[in-house]
Design goal:
Chain lengths: ~120, ~675
């Protein structure tokens, strides 16, 4: 079953390669270029999963999650980080903000899909 | 991926230009945190993308450069002219790096190194604390030791509610290294009280990994705070490396759910002691190798008679246990049934363990032949394909060890004398250019057969005869049968090769092979066809006589068909079989000859309305056996048949069923051979 997934990343090539991977696996993908842009997508649309970068201009990943979690219908949506960061402190910060999981870039397509299947219902 | 790479290159060039601009801005405004933040982010994007799209040099380089700006961001470094200088140079350097290809990689890598040294200087001189920068670069050089950890994981009852699955976490743990995972059941309530949305399970895990405790904690980082997770280092060595330790650890985990950690710690101490004793033993052994036969702790030698006895007793136990199960089943005794089931379980494990002590699959020796053939085909310049069949056939370990040399010799002969010297010779005879040697192992009756077949020249019987007369082995007037002539090859000092090569034909050939096979109580036979190839067949007794079989019934008689020859089972109405022309039945749209065992063995009772046909593969054709009913799978302990059955080749033995009755074990090959001779032409 394909999922509706929102990708948030300021790098176009990363957005492209992630959406390419996901679309090939049968998912439906929307792409946002930063946190502020991502919030406009959430308005009125129902997603199954959000994948976001950590460092982005305007609104970074952690700030984005905090903003998402106060929206009633997105309280429990799985949110995955896809980032080059791997420090535990960063992960803890992300978890406290409400993240569901963490994928480290560079990613292997299979691993990414596996991680998605683990969190998206 | 290539398209994305191009896209990233465009993007990277933009990012590099951004970086250049930002650095110039920073020059006029050295304390502006927002610019530093942006510089950091741009570098981060560069790093992430380059790692993703395989620009390793940029990845390496920006990682380091990023460190500088991370320090500045954290207030540990000040923006200096020097740093700006380096960054601007770095911008130019990055522009070259983005053009990284296989051709210029070495050159760029060298330039990269110089830059990295400069950046390291900056990092070190401003903050002597960061000595680990080198470590990041030379990550592979850091030798990590595999250690053993204990993890106790008790998910909170509401664990499933946010869609989490504890099994995924266990999966992630197992990917870190080797793990023994044992479930904890104690929290599971009575069936009536179970709420299916709650998680009652817990797990204890012993994990050996080189990744370190942080990597383990990382797995659980996104687990809710209500779940109980405990990670402890058990030992600095890999406790799972030894199979016996693994077993002990798993048992301890299974038996002691609550006080497991104390038990594990004391166990660990014991195991570490044994381990270090073993280490010193091994060291002592290697330092004083002259001492010869030191015992090793992990294995002991037992005489094969003792093993044979053990196997016999277990066979008896299996038979008696089958009786007990049947008795318990018939009596519906509430107390006896669980006991008998427990005994059945234990017996099965005991039987498997005991039998597995001696048996190993033929595949174990096949790799050695594969290498031999590879080497020989290079040395001899012959193109030969090695095929194997039946490598899962299990043989006694001793037999396999003693078989390797003779089989190697047979293969050498096939390669040297069998396969034609040139491709032209093969093609002229209408054969494929690539020669073929087939290794085939199979059971038939109470024997194991190993066959080496080549599709080469074959053996010229007239030549053998000439040679034998020449050597004075036989006198010219003696008439020999085909088999007798071929048997000459096994005589000491007989070789037909014109020139003695360094591979075979040294005159120590087939007689040694024959002697070695005889030592194993086996027989060896050669069959050949001139121009087509030869087959050497080694027949060995099966010291262990237990087979997986299909238990079938005809009238009131049970029979066992070895499972390794069964292909498929079909059902037919009796009339259809009765009226089949030439005994040919239609199975999956193919005509298959069927042997009606009911007729064959002269059962006089009327057959059931629906009969079953078990099809088997025989010489690349299928052939069916008609029987009344399939009873099920059965592990048959083969017992030899008495002298009364001496003439009945198609039974390889008998086995005792649970109710004490006897079932005959069919030898399908023999049965089909006999039947084919009398009644049908297979594949006609």
């Amino acid at each position: 079953m394909g999922k509706k997934i929102l990708i948030v990343d300021d790098s176009e090539s990363i957005r492209e390669v992630v959406s390419f991977t996901l679309e090939n696996a049968g998912h439906e993908v929307s792409k946002a270029f930063d946190g502020v842009d991502a919030l406009t997508y959430l308005d009125g649309k129902k997603y199954d999963l959000i994948i976001t970068d950590l460092h982005m201009p305007n609104l970074n990943g952690i700030e984005l999650i905090r903003k998402i979690r106060v929206i009633e219908e997105y309280k429990f949506i799985p949110i995955l980080f896809l980032t080059t960061e791997s420090q535990t402190a960063k992960k803890m910060e992300a978890k406290d903000a409400g993240a569901t999981g963490w994928i480290v870039k560079p990613f292997v397509p299979e691993k990414l899909l596996e991680a998605i299947n683990k969190v998206a219902r | 991926m290539e398209a994305f790479r191009e896209k990233f290159k465009e993007e990277a060039n933009e990012l590099i230009s951004d970086l250049e601009q930002l650095v110039l801005q920073l020059e006029g405004n050295k304390t502006d945190q927002s610019i530093v933040e942006q510089v950091f982010r741009v570098m981060h994007s560069l790093k992430g993308g380059s790692a993703m799209f395989g620009f390793t040099l940029i990845d390496q380089f920006t990682h380091l450069l990023e460190n500088i700006y991370d320090k500045i961001r954290a207030g540990e470094l000040q923006v200096t002219e020097d740093i700006l200088d380096i960054t601007l140079n770095a911008v130019d350097h990055l522009r070259r790096l983005i053009e990284e290809t296989d051709a210029n990689f070495a050159e760029l890598a060298a330039a990269n190194k110089k830059f990295i040294v400069r950046i390291e200087q900056v990092l070190n001189q401003n903050s002597p604390k960061i000595e680990n920068v080198r470590l990041i670069l030379d990550d592979e050089d850091v030798i990590r030791k595999t250690k053993t950890y204990f993890i106790s994981f008790d998910p909170s009852p509401d664990f499933f509610q946010d869609g989490s699955n504890p099994l995924f976490l266990l999966d992630d743990l197992c990917q870190l290294g080797e793990a023994v995972v044992v479930p904890k059941y104690s929290r599971i309530p009575k069936l009536n009280d179970i709420d299916p949305t709650e998680c009652y399970m817990g797990w204890n895990v012993i994990l050996t990994t080189a990744e370190g405790i942080n990597a383990i904690m990382d797995v659980f980082i996104f687990t809710n705070n209500r779940s109980k997770i405990e990670v402890q280092k058990l030992s600095d060595i890999n406790l799972l490396a030894d199979k016996s330790y693994r077993k002990i650890l798993a048992e301890t985990l299974a038996n002691k759910e609550s006080i497991v950690i104390e038990a594990l710690h004391s166990l660990t101490q014991d195991l570490e002691k044994i381990h270090s004793e073993n280490e010193t033993l091994i060291q002592r052994k290697s330092s004083a190798s002259g001492h010869g036969r030191d015992q090793t702790i992990s294995s002991i030698r037992v005489s094969s008679e003792k093993l044979d006895d053990l196997i016999n007793w277990v066979s008896e136990l299996v038979t008696i246990q089958a009786q007990l199960s049947l008795f318990a089943q018939q009596n519906h005794d509430a107390e006896l049934t669980p006991i008998s089931e427990e005994i059945e379980k234990i017996t099965r494990r005991l039987r498997d363990d005991v039998f597995s002590i001696r048996l190993i699959p033929a595949a174990n020796m096949v790799t050695r032949f594969q290498r031999l053939i590879r080497e020989l085909s290079q040395n001899l310049g012959k193109d030969v394909l090695f095929e194997t069949k039946g490598t899962e056939t299990e043989l006694d370990k001793n037999i396999i060890e003693m078989l390797v040399d003779p089989v190697m010799h047979i293969i050498r002969n096939s390669m040297d004398h069998g396969i034609e010297d040139t491709i032209d010779e093969r093609v002229a005879n209408g054969k494929p250019a690539t020669g073929k040697i087939l290794f085939n192992a199979y059971y038939s009756g109470t024997n194991v057969y190993i066959q080496i077949t080549d599709d080469g020249k074959g053996i010229d019987l007239a030549k053998i005869r000439r040679k034998a007369i020449e050597k004075g082995i036989i006198s010219p007037e003696v008439e020999l049968s085909r088999k007798e002539t071929l048997d000459l090859l096994f005589l000491p000092g007989f070789t037909t090769a014109q020139s003695i090569t360094n591979l075979s034909g040294r005159g120590v050939g087939m007689d040694v092979v024959k002697r070695k096979i005889s030592d194993l109580r086996g027989q060896v036979e050669i069959e050949t066809e001139l121009g087509k190839g030869s087959t050497v067949t080694i027949k060995l007794p099966l010291t262990l006589s237990i087979i997986d079989g299909l238990l079938v019934r005809i009238d009131d008689t049970h029979m066992v068909i070895p499972l390794n020859s069964v292909y498929k089972v079909y059902e037919y109405q009796h009339e259809k079989l009765e009226h089949a022309i030439n005994n040919l039945i239609l199975a999956d749209d193919e005509r298959v000859p069927a042997i009606n065992l009911r007729k064959h063995f002269n059962f006089e009772t009327p057959p059931p309305a629906i009969e079953r046909v078990v099809t088997m593969e025989y010489n690349d054709h299928y052939i069916g056996l008609t029987i009344d009913e399939i009873v099920g799978e059965y592990q048959a302990v083969l017992k030899p048949l008495g002298t009364m059955f001496k003439g009945q080749d198609f039974f390889s033995g008998a086995t005792i069923l649970g109710d004490g009755s006897v079932a005959l074990v069919l030898d399908p090959n023999k049965l089909v051979e006999q039947f084919a001779k009398n009644e049908i032409k297979i594949g006609g």
